[in-house]
Amino acid sequence: MTDRAASLEGKIAVVTGVSHQGQVGETVAKALAASGAALAICARTQSNVEARAADLRQAGARVLAVATSLNEESGAKRLIEAAIEEYERIDVLVNLAGGLTRYKPAVEHSLDDWNTELSNNLLSAFLVSREVFPHMQAAGGGAIINFARAGLSQANMVAYNCAKAGIEALTRTLALEGRDSGIRVNAVAPGLVDTASNIAAMKPKDLKRWTKREDIAEVVIFLASPAAAGITGQVMTVTGWGL
Known about the structure:
- There is one protein chain.
- The chain has 243 residues and is α/β, with parallel strands linked by helices.
- It has one domain: NAD(P)-binding Rossmann-like Domain (Rossmann fold, 3-Layer(aba) Sandwich).
- The protein is 46% helix and 16% strand.
- It contains 8 helices and 7 strands; from the N terminus they run αβαβαβαβαβαβααβ.
- It has helices at residues 3-6, 24-34, 46-58, 73-87, 111-139, 158-178, 196-202, 213-224; strands at 12-16, 38-43, 63-67, 92-95, 142-147, 183-190, 235-238.
- Strands 3-2-1-4-5-6-7 form a 7-stranded parallel sheet, with helices on both faces.
- Helix 5 runs parallel beside helix 6 (158-178).
- It starts with a helix and ends in a 5-residue tail after the last strand.
């Protein structure tokens, strides 16, 4: 284990959106566990989050699995309360829940399309961050890591683009509100990621210009660690060779 990995030894990390194999949530959770953190992971579906927790436990991690919807205040509250009950504190929150589900021209987006994308990607991050903030304030600090998107000008995903732009604003606002309490808030903005679902859907011939999940996880580890003690309110673009 490297010195940087060891810097998360004994830390408690909550990671949302840990559902399927081959996705960013799974990779980030594994990296945090390998760095010494105990985990509380979350997804909507009980069977999915329990399966990911079983994989992590098999590798030696301490993991709490919580199945809940983060689009509702009660769901976000349930996740954070469960983590506090299990571990008594939360040092790191990684808001990964969400994803692109509506891909069509803006004029074809229904109100439901709009609300769904903003709820999944922006509202969920706000609700969980709001729940964890008082606990981090009481503990004297913590790190929140959101997920934005590199490049917000791609067509046919207007609601998703707007949700991710909102994540950047949420990140900077929470960073301002958390600075006197030692709460650092940053965001990771990946490019096109080599997730199992993206590869299956797009069937690329070459992955050289895709962002690697492992590279994203390394940035999360850095932002969660004391090595990033002087960084807050920033959006870190991770695009690999895609630029």
